[in-house]
Structure formats: C-alpha cells, structure tokens
Write a structure and sequence with these properties.
alpha/beta; eight-stranded parallel barrel; about 45% helix; binds SN-glycerol-3-phosphate
Length: about 280
Amino acid sequence: MKLFIDSAKIEEIKEAEKLGVLDGITTNPSLIKKAAVGKGKIDMEKYIISIFNAVGKKIPVSLEVVASDFNEMVREGKVLHKKFRKHGNVYVKIPVNPCLEDKCSTASDGIRAIKLLSSKGIKINCTLIFTPEQALLAAKAGANIVSPFAGREDDYIREMSRIKFEKEDYYPSRGKKKLGKILSDDGIVSGIDLVAEIKMIFRKQGIKAEVLAASIRNKRQFREAALAGADIATVPFSVIKTLLEHNKTSEGMRKFVKDIVPEYKSMLNKGRKGK
Ligand code: G3P
C-alpha cells in the first residue's frame, strides 16, 4: 500500500518526506485553507509550486477543483493541469457528484468532467466517494484513483445512530451492533468495509483504477485499510507520526542502550575517523 500525506502544509510535507517512504500528497479546499491560515495574503500559485518542490517530480500531488458544474469543473481541471504539470505529477481531484444538496440537476457533472478530462490525458483522483456504486461509475469514466472517505463514512454511521464520538475514535471495520442489529449505511458497515467492497468489485470486474483510502483518523484504521487491500492510504501528519510508536519499542530501546558493553561499542567504532 502506498503512503500519501493528506496535507497542504509545507512543514508537514517536508517532515513526512524525511521518512523516506512517502509516495504522494493529497490536498482539498479545506486543507488548503488550513495551510493558508495565518499567512496573510498568499500567492497561491507560488505556494502550490512550493508543495511540488518539497517532493520529487514523480510524486503524485492531488489538487481539487472547487466548481460544482460541468463547464467550470472542466475549466478548472485544465487550469490546474496546465499551471502545475511542469512542476510535478499533477492529479486533478474531481468530486464524484457536485450537488450541494441530496438531489440536484447536475449530479452527473462530476462523472462527465472525469470522462472529458481523462480523455485529454489528465490524471484524475475522484473524491468524496461514499458508495461502491459511485466508485464504479468514476472508474468507468476514466478516474485513475477513486477516494472513499473511510473516517467520514464511520462518522455517518455513528451520526445516523446518534452515537457520540470524537474525530480520532476507532470504529471497528466489521461494524458495531446496536439493539442486536449491525449498523450500516445501505449495507456498508464501516469506512473500511467501504474500501474493501470497492476493492472487491474492482478485482471482480477487472478495473484498474487505484483505491485510495481517505479520511484516515487513526493508526488502526490505517492498518485495516492495508488489510482491506487499499492501493493507497492518505494519512494526516498527526496520524503518520503515530505509525512508528509503541511503548514496548521505546522501552526496548532504553534497555538496549543501557546494556551496551564498551567492547561492543569500540568494535563498532574501529576505523572511524579520529578513533
Ligand atoms: O482525505 C480526505 C480528508 O482530507 C478528509 O479527512 O478527516 O476531514 O474526514 P477528514
């Protein structure tokens, strides 16, 4: 599974890049807003170029359109592609359905925009996916990546059942029971179940699009995304930092450091400059 960082903050991206195993970056309008806060009036084009410059040229960077109708989504997608392709590997993020309410007359505009932009050779990450059906249509239209929002799917299942929770709280991938019944959103029992079902459908249907587990809230969910077969997980920096932590790892380190015998250390130091 590839590891992407879900952030538009340069410091976080640079810090994550130091790990040496970062495969990509995803942004969205809310992440851009978070990154811009407190910076006064920023030159957005320059800022985004600095995101590309923080990583290698081949690293995929997803940038989202903000329009909610076909013509504008297509125009913005082309602008993003044209402006930044010389700086790196641009993926244009298109919402699967741009309606601001449950129903509207432009529900298919996202899929139509994906079809047109991908036919021009622009790489697409289709975002805001909450059903396997949405993922299937996005892939049929030519999306290279589909992004189910695992954490927000868990939120939705809890909200519908009036379960209180904090954003980082773990939600079991196999779902939760209430009054003897397993809670679900039209048969989907958790965000990770959504990822797993999409993966299963893509496998059975021979679909090549990559499945990117988004809206990852904790390290156990990251692990479960890998178990579900996600091709990519995009992870906020706060969660990336926890991926290497374990009490017993640091306890073990303390003991090893305490137990070093001088002969072992001097053997390792032999031949070092100045020794
Ligand atoms: O990758 C999508 C992400 O930015 C949304 O995350 O935690 O706001 O649901 P979250």
